[in-house]
Write a structure and sequence with these properties.
112 residues, five-stranded mixed beta sheet, YaeB-like fold, single chain, 3 helices
């Protein structure tokens, strides 16, 4: 039996923003649909094997409970708590995601 997946309001806003950027700014609504579907499928694949995600501290020197999976250049940040998988954020892998996750002034100094 797998874990229950719960999306935070911030993660849902992230997904909406990703869709809007691709569909409206890049004028590729079909591409936006595919990217969001692939991200959701990537998360669904964690239901039975949540520890198949990567610990965040392999990419940075900040210790945390966060793990992540990648899809289309986006990082989906998750936390496992007993039988629940919390999807906290979905951020571009090109962004300073540590600054957004931890509120540090310059996340670049923590990347490995």
């Amino acid at each position: 039996m797998g874990v229950e997946v719960l999306y935070s309001p911030a993660a849902l806003r992230d997904l909406d923003a990703i869709w809007e950027w691709i569909a409206i700014e890049k004028e590729e609504p079909g591409g936006a649909d595919r990217v969001i579907a692939d991200i959701l499928e990537r998360v669904d694949a964690l239901v039975d094997f949540p520890l198949s995600s990567t610990p965040l501290d392999v990419r940075c020197s900040i210790r945390s409970d966060w793990r992540f999976v990648e899809s289309h250049g986006y990082l989906v940040f998750v936390r496992l708590c007993e039988d629940r998988l919390f999807v906290d954020r979905v951020l571009s892998g090109k962004s300073d995601y540590l600054r957004r996750l931890f509120g540090v002034e310059d996340g670049k100094r923590y990347y490995r």
